[in-house]
Amino acid sequence: MTSSRWFLLAFAAALALLPQLPVPEFWVTQLNYIGLYALVVIGLVLLTGIAGLTSFGQAAFVGIGAYSSAWLTLNLGLSPWLAVFGGLALTALAALLLGWITLRMSGHYLPLATIAWCLSLYYLFGNLEALGRYDGLLGIAPLSVFGLPLNTGRSFFYLLWALVMLAALAATQLLDSRSGRALRALKGGSTMPEAMGIDTFRAKVTVFVLAALLAGMSGWLFAHFQRSVNPSPFGLKMGIEYLFMAVIGGVGQVWGALAGAAVVKLLEDQLQVLLPRLLGGSGSYEVIVFGVLLVGVLQYARDGLWAAVVARLPRRARRRDWADAAPLPEAARPPHGELVLDVHSVRKEFGGLVAVNDVSFQVRAGEIVGLIGPNGAGKSTTFNLVSGVLPLTRGEVRLRGERIDGLPSRGIARRGVSRTFQHVKMVPEMTVLENVALGAHRRGRRGVLPAMLRLERDEERRLLREAERQLQRVGMADRLDELAGNLALGPQRLMEIARALSADPSLLLLDEPAAGLRHQEKRALAGVLRQLRAEGLSILLVEHDMDLVMDVSDRIVVMEFGTQLMQGTPAEVQASAAVRAAYLGTEH
Ligand code: ADP
Ligand code: MG
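^ inputs. structure came back:
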């Protein structure tokens, strides 16, 4: 058993023992509140810490879960165990609706939207006659197990903390899976994950609903523990506090959610007593302290408390349990010489600037085509047009006869086009292996629920085996467990190539793969490219290293100022006076 498992077991045992000890009821109640908060904060960790979507509005989902279960038990006489389904269904529905509308918004609009809906739901709770307006609903049934009501803090404690531990476990297992990697890739923008075939909007809606469900569950427990609900715990102030707990605990850390909930709750209690005594009068002074603390944490301990602890622990290498996994099925490669990519008169304008002007070229199966030209010639833009990252202004792109221009980049990725980026795009806090496995995303199927329950391990092993195989191919098999963000630029580029290969592409687009590589690494790269060509892969290569391009390319397309200067074999290009003129002064 690993040390973290031991730690968990010890933690669970301590929790189980605690209510049996003669601790004052007050402390049990405190722990119950911490547990209720922690459920919400675990969701927020996934949403904000992992996926990068900031929400001030989680308290509203707690409210929906609480009110709907309370209403169902009071008005329809349902058992809380049945009402929970109604409560969670309504929470999910609300989250789906809100997510659908707001998750397409970028930047600061999303947090603002979460504030808006938190405020409006608060007033809705407070003004609906059926929900008792600001007085709320009273006399809600307690939860009971085998006829025994959980109406004391100690009896409620077990159910609550069992659910908290399960939620934390499910969340950590989710993060270590195909779906989890997709969520972790969201924070860096959608370009890279979409190019790996990931539907980022869908992933965002999923994590949003998941976080809302955890909040709704907390609300359900709260309603039947407190046995009354009114709007006040579901307002914006609480929404901000949840976010504060997540930030204090470490927004990227599932177990940090527990730490954050505990610290904030205990601190709040102390401050609520202390501050009015110090400052006189009465008021929610603790909010001011929290604000100051929040700024401090963001300034000095960005990743929160738990991350500070975890960073000091030695990182363990991942257990390699995938050696005997079945290889993933591979798509049939087009026969040698078949037309794979047909770029026909493509044009791209950025406002008044024509970045790509009527460029046409073809790539056949088993061929390496170099795309060269001075800086700003339009090479990367051409890549973005082919891979669907940018829409065309005019022209056509066909992949094996099928038009692909107009498709989203994940649609193009799913048809077998895989790419790297001139400016490396990766998830720095994931390991090299995990980053490369992201490339194999489209070759897996299993989603969030199986991942949380660890029912997808067969597929997961197959994906990881593929990732390791591709890392071996680029000579990085010994660096699987390193954090991608700690790599130098050269290895990062090789990692991107391995990631692109994990997608089992028929066409590979490499944007300056040799930039930042050392001489030895470049030679190894050339070897890999030739090997891939021999396997029937088609490669479009943008590269500044002329030795490499001339060495490996079958044909070369030269661009200048967005237009196509010439096409030909390496020998023809080297002999061209026009090409030499284009490079004069810009090539070093
Ligand atoms: P290369 O990769 O050949 O160095 P690029 O394709 O990156 O060249 O750029 C071609 C031209 O298009 C440059 O003038 C660049 O400034 C411009 N350009 C590239 N991307 C954008 C963009 N997103 N918005 C506006 N202009 C762009
Ligand atoms: Mg470029």
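The mean pLDDT is 91. The chain has three domains: 3-310, 334-416+505-588, 427-504.
thumbs up if we can close this ticket
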